[in-house]
Specification:
CATH superfamily of the largest domain: GAF domain
Number of strands: 20
Oligomer: single chain
Strand content: 25-35%
CATH topology of the largest domain: Beta-Lactamase
CATH architecture of the largest domain: 2-Layer Sandwich
Number of domains: 3
Number of helices: 11
Structural class: alpha+beta
Helix content: 25-40%
Length: about 450
């Protein structure tokens, strides 16, 4: 039996493996392993963080024994191996380090809990541990290993067909998430795109969460999603629920105290309380990052090796389609400016909404409730102010790009993504105001409320 014959789930850290070493004078030591990576040519790599005794034993006596478990069938495999060398840099080290950094940043331990080295071992033999689990015990679990469902090619055909005809970013992401849910059972998903500074990601669409958290931000390089954006590589984690629970419990604790008053308005990232598996991929056009797709599940076995490959193929199509959608909108909105239209007619019983813009904080509040900040806030205020002054209701993306008060950068302004975010925040927090698309590069202001606009210093 070879190490490549073991199921990929054995190396996801769902059930910690064991490593046994001995010193030069024969004193044994057994430790748990948090991460094992399978390498080509019958080799494995172990993450070296705190295992001082294990590492010392490997250097003094390179023969080691590992016990690796299948988290689904509960089989145990005994692996005899020989320590070969450590890697302190390069693709292997970077890959393993990125994963540890992503988890550590969730609990404020980035830079403290870090990878010291990737230890490479040569696998000498692999055998099933006889008697570890008998047939009656396995049958009692009621587990069935029937893959079922559509084939990978059929699933790819369905997803590709659904997103191919998307004419705008909102439709593209909605169809993508719906089709992945349909063919793969990916119930919870997030799409993020970089902001104008290329320093942060912001959530532009979600799927399967009870609250729509569009507008939530995360710094590139922080957490799993930020690490994927920074390193531009796929990341998959399993059994991370404990770390995530700790991180979210700390945040919830702050929100319940008076300290929350000192916090800037912030939209929390969506996330399952009991998430056990995460998978995130970067969306790239050439070497340029256009977004990140992330998925999570309460099932530790939800994401396998083939899901990574599948989503990389889908991600390539999504990235190119996103680019094409943006280019098409810019071509169309270059044809003209907004039309002059009469003011919106409201009935005498229409509610009144007080909309306040804070230029110093770059944010908009509606009836004392925070709505949105930064560039989308400036876009909304520009549209509302223009409507109040002239009665106009129709606008174009080109007009927004030329408006100096909005301050869009000349290149890669991400306006289309910001408009999607603005529409969803309005739908969630203030449905009386709507920014409705009327064609590529064009939109209309619709409101069912009387608006009172105020600028606050």
């Amino acid at each position: 039996m070879k190490i490549g014959d073991l199921p990929a789930r054995c190396f996801q850290g769902i059930v910690p493996s064991l490593i046994a070493t001995s010193s030069a004078d024969g004193i044994p030591n057994i430790s748990y392993l948090s991460s094992i990576e399978r390498l080509p040519n019958e080799r494995i790599a172990l993450s070296c963080q705190f295992f001082n005794k294990t590492k010392a034993n490997e250097l003094a006596n390179p023969r080691v024994c590992l016990e690796i478990y299948d988290p689904l069938t509960f089989e145990a495999f005994r692996v005899e191996a020989r320590y070969s060398h450590e890697e302190l840099e390069g693709p292997l080290f970077d890959r393993m380090s990125s994963r540890l950094d992503a988890i550590a940043s969730h609990v404020g331990m980035k830079g403290v809990f870090r990878l010291r080295a990737s230890d490479v071992l040569e696998v000498l033999s692999v055998e099933v541990r006889d008697g570890f689990l008998d047939g009656s015990e396995l049958a009692a679990t009621g587990l069935a290993l029937d893959p079922g469902g559509p084939t990978e090619v059929r699933a790819l055909q369905v997803v590709s067909g659904r997103i191919r005809g998307a004419h705008d970013l909102d439709t593209l992401l909605r169809e993508l998430f719906a089709s992945l849910d349909e063919v793969l059972g990916f119930r919870h998903a997030i799409a993020l795109v970089p902001d104008e500074t290329q320093a942060k990601l912001f959530v532009v669409a979600t799927h399967g969460y009870p609250e729509d958290s569009v507008g939530a931000e995360i710094a590139i390089g922080e957490g799993l999603l930020g690490a994927v954006a920074h390193d531009r590589r796929v990341m998959r984690t399993s059994c991370v629920d404990a770390d995530l629970r700790y991180h979210r419990a700390m945040r919830a604790g702050v929100e319940r105290t008076a300290t929350r008053r000192a916090l800037a308005p912030e939209i929390p990232l969506p996330g399952l309380v009991d998430a056990k598996a995460q998978l995130a991929i970067p969306l790239l056009v050439s070497d340029r990052l256009v977004g990140v797709l992330a998925f999570e599940s309460e099932d530790s076995y939800a994401f396998d090796d083939w899901h990574e490959a599948f989503l990389e193929v889908v991600g390539n199509q999504v990235a190119v389609t996103m680019e094409n959608v943006v280019l098409r909108e810019r071509d169309d909105d270059a044809e003209g400016d907004g039309d002059d239209r009469p003011s919106i007619e409201l009935s005498s019983g229409s509610p009144t909404k007080r909309v306040r813009f804070y230029p110093g904080d770059d944010c908009v509040f509606v009836d004392d409730d925070y709505l949105i900040q930064n560039l989308p806030a400036r876009v909304l205020w520009y549209v509302l102010d223009a409507h109040a002054s002239t009665g106009r209701v129709d606008f174009t993306n080109r007009e927004l790009r030329l408006a100096s008060v909005i301050g869009l950068p000349k290149h890669r302004d991400n306006l289309e993504s910001r408009l999607v975010l603005l529409r969803r925040r309005l739908a969630e927090k203030c449905p009386e105001i709507r920014i409705a698309s009327t064609g590529r590069g064009r939109f209309r202001l619709e409101t069912s409320a009387k608006l009172v606009l105020e600028t606050q210093a």
